[in-house]
Write a structure and sequence with these properties.
Length: about 210
């Protein structure tokens, strides 16, 4: 079983992967995409206006079999994700990686099967626990207040499957991942070393 939340099951005469949690998406196209790949129960928010009825359905699903929030990585998607997490603690969050695209993220409906599976294999739960990374350490790593801070955060967004976000959001998600200063510094140093070696091999690509 490759994932903690996905199992294999025979469904409508074919072998499909089953997601035991309820997955929350934004619209019909997202639902169709996921149901072509998985045996899964879907809740659609149908936009940023989350009704009390929708939140109630999500809350019940969270208590019964858990919930995965899988919204797009744009402003409306993050607004929906934030509101659900604030109203219903303990939900899991799936984020699509940038994959070198210019935009901050891509929608579930346009993602490949591999991109979706990777997102579902790296779920993040927002938990109010003791910080493993302090704000002082965050700033010392250059993740805020410097010219290249946005670039450094993008490295961590990609490496740790954090989704795209502001400095405040990434600080919170690094703590939700329970990452420490030394772990993050090692990741950034490895990226710098890798980039340095690549530049030495092929300076013409700079």
């Amino acid at each position: 079983m490759p994932y903690g939340t996905i199992t294999k099951d025979f469904y409508i005469g074919m072998c499909m992967k089953k997601i035991k949690e309820t997955v929350v998406v934004e619209g019909k196209d997202d639902e169709v995409k996921l149901k072509t790949l998985y045996d899964v129960h879907i809740i659609k928010t149908n936009g940023t206006h989350l009704s009390e009825e929708c939140l109630k359905e999500i809350r019940i699903s969270r208590e019964i079999n858990g919930v995965i929030i899988f919204t797009d990585q744009d402003a409306p998607g993050e607004q929906i994700r934030r509101r659900i997490n604030e109203a219903i603690p303990g939900c899991k969050n799936a984020f699509l990686k940038k994959r070198g695209r210019k935009k901050a993220g891509i929608g579930v409906e346009n993602a490949t099967e591999e991109e979706i599976e990777e997102a579902l294999a790296n779920l993040l739960t927002y938990e109010n626990e003791e910080e493993t990374l302090s704000r002082k350490e965050f700033n010392a790593l250059g993740l805020q207040g410097r010219e290249n801070s946005s670039y450094l955060r993008s490295i961590l967004e990609e490496h740790y499957h954090l989704g795209h976000g502001s400095a405040k959001t990434i600080f919170q998600r690094l703590n939700h991942r329970k990452l420490t200063y030394n772990e993050i510094k090692e990741t950034l140093d490895e990226k710098r070393d890798s980039q340095h070696c690549q530049n030495e091999r092929d300076p013409g690509d700079l």
